[in-house]
Design goal:
Blueprint (H helix, E strand, L loop, with lengths): L3 E5 L2 E4 L9 E6 L2 E6 L5 E5 L2 H11 L4 H12 L18
Antiparallel strand pairs: 1-2, 2-3, 3-4, 4-5
C-alpha cells in the first residue's frame, strides 16, 4: 500500500517506495491515474481530467511543498538519492 500524501476532494496523491526517477507522485481520480513530475508538474504518463490536473499542479506550487515531496521521495527510495558531495573550504585544504 502506498502512503497517501493528500486527498484533495477525491483526488488521491500517493508516493511509493521501490520507484524510479524522475521524482514523481501518483495521482488518482476515479478511473484515472497519472504520474506527475514533482519538480516540473509535467505529466509523465497516464491521464487525468484537465481541471483535476490543474488542482494538483496548484497544490504542488504552494510554499515549499515540492522540496518536502522530493525529500519524502528520496526517504522512501534512498538508492535513488543523489550522492552528497562534501567539500572543504579552500582555507582548510592542505
Amino acid at each position: 500500500m502506498a502512503p497517501l500524501i493528500e486527498n484533495l476532494s477525491g483526488i488521491k496523491i500517493e508516493m511509493y517506495s521501490r520507484e524510479h526517477l524522475p521524482v514523481h507522485i501518483h495521482v488518482k481520480y476515479g478511473e484515472y491515474e497519472t504520474l506527475l513530475n514533482i519538480k516540473t508538474s509535467e505529466v509523465m504518463g497516464g491521464r487525468l481530467p484537465s481541471k483535476k490536473l490543474r488542482i494538483v499542479q496548484d497544490w504542488l506550487a504552494e510554499g515549499d511543498r515540492r522540496e518536502r515531496l522530493v525529500n519524502n521521495f528520496y526517504q522512501l527510495n534512498p538508492r535513488l538519492a543523489p550522492p552528497v558531495i562534501v567539500t572543504k573550504p579552500e582555507n582548510e585544504i592542505k
